[in-house]
Amino acid sequence: MQISELSDRSGLTVQTIKFYIREGLLPKGSAVSATRSEYDERHLERLRLINALRDIGDLPVAAIQQIIASVDDPSVGLHELFGTTQYAIGPHVERPDDPHWRAAREDVDALVRELGWKVGGGAPARDLLAHSFVALRRLGFPITLTDLRPYVRAATEVAEHELRRVSDDAPRTRTVHSLLVSTVLYEQVLTALHRLAQEDASARRFGA
Amino acid sequence: MQISELSDRSGLTVQTIKFYIREGLLPKGSAVSATRSEYDERHLERLRLINALRDIGDLPVAAIQQIIASVDDPSVGLHELFGTTQYAIGPHVERPDDPHWRAAREDVDALVRELGWKVGGGAPARDLLAHSFVALRRLGFPITLTDLRPYVRAATEVAEHELRRVSDDAPRTRTVHSLLVSTVLYEQVLTALHRLAQEDASARRFGA
User: Fold this and answer.
1) Measured between beta carbons, which residues in chain A are less than 8 angstroms from residue B198?
2) A207 to each of B71, B77, B174, how far by Cα in Å?
């Protein structure tokens, strides 16, 4: 297809597509004349991924370049590719250098060890969890491992389901796209369902 | 205690405390002289709730007034008090008047009926879920009831645990405070745990 059709089908302007090509995010089309290039479905799939990384992941071009480079490098395994994507998404919370923060972060590390989870020491989610621990303590709701158990179980079930959903032989572009969607959009789904389930549980416990 | 001690213990300035009294959010202290009032632990607890509603719930004063009025009105049952708080927190997403939105919102309503959940028709979480459905469809990841099942199960388990944690005879101020914390902060906890569990599941499936 020509760039105009690629623009129509992706919903991105020709200018944006050319910008992505210049930045190395999208491979050039194959030249069919001095002024015309042909694009195919892989270009479209790639554009959709870039768009999702910008839109849902809210990622800067540099982070997208890094993810795309990993997608294109067959020596990068799927686990590493997932890590690159997930760590780029963040969220990257502040890490204040105070005793409360350090204590909370140590608690997170102890929890991950106790659960036997294989998680990198630099995972942004460790900081995110520590951030919640600090806020809960400050508000007089210190968290214990017992409080956490139902959340750990829920998170584990959902994550295992999501990883089972990944097919081994799908194109890597699609795999990263689907991980991004699980991480960001299905988290929104989980939040919305949690609030609906809370209302239902409250109706059943305290009467509507 | 005097207002200066209330300020110290709550971490709020005397000016902020006086503003809350003027807005009817905090009851006046009992006058012990023409220029001095006494405050007690209930004032402190109330201040902590107001602060949490502003800080974590990001609520405007009018919404806080409405919640505080329900807390103070013993004819408002706990279920209704929960609803008032949860609906105030939102998030209130846009409801575009287009066919995609309407179809997604109908799917949400059908899902809630099918699950037999007792949830008000105006629950903001219905809109939030419809919003995610629209985004998933737009990105080429249409959602089915089978996809949703693990999320529904996880949300239900967590919500039931949270409602069990609410004690019947705790002061209502504390109960609302704890619901707010469950809704906002434990959702952050769940998000962080979800990402850690994803990394672990990926390590186990695709090798570290």
Assistant:
1) 82, 86, 159, 162-163, 179, 182-183
2) 17, 9, 20
